[in-house]
Amino acid sequence: MLFALLDNPVVTATCPGLVNEGSSTSLACSADSKPFSSFTWILPNGTRHSSPGPVTSNQFSYGITTIDRTHYGKYSCTASNGVVSDGEDLCNLEIKCTQLLLI
Questions:
Q1: How far apart are CA 54 and CA 27, in angstroms?
Q2: pLDDT band per the 50, 70, 90 thresholds, residue 4
Q3: What's the predicted TM-score (pTM) here?
Q4: Does residue 91 sit in helix, strand or coil?
């Protein structure tokens, strides 16, 4: 008889913290999960970015090429292995904005 051990995904979302406006960055998400998980990043504005399916490395990143103040906020990463409850973790992205000079 063969038994498979199934785990709820334990998720870790990592944001770089304070990022300079105009730079680029990547948010990392990983899950300790059996079977492998599919991932979804939920941005502060509600936009979703999902992996195309289960990721065998159990890691999924979301890259931002040119940071601006609209990227500020709380990001959520959810991992789902389709068997047990989803796992979720949050991280905050802070933006160091350049000053605007009004004339």
A1: 18
A2: low
A3: 0.85
A4: strand
Selection from 103, 24, 4 nearest residue 65 by Cα? 24
Domain coordinates in residue numbering, the chain: 10-96
Question: For the segment 41-77, what is each residue's pLDDT rounded down to a tens digit?
Answer: 999 999 999 999 889 999 999 999 999 999 999 999 9
Measured between alpha carbons, how far is 33 from 92 in angstroms, rounded to an integer? 23
* Residue 37, Cβ density class (10 Å: 0-12 exposed, 13-18 middle, ≥19 buried): buried
Instruction: Supply the DSSP string of 1-64, one letter for each residue.
Output: ---------EEEEE--SEEETT--EEEEEEEE-SSPPEEEEE-TTS-EEE-SS--TTSEEEEEE
Contact indicator for 49, 69 with CB cutoff of 8 Å: no
- pLDDT, tens only, 57-66: 999 999 999 9
Structurally, at CATH architecture level, domain 10-96 sits in Sandwich (2.60)
Closest CA to 94 of 13, 11, 12, 25: 25
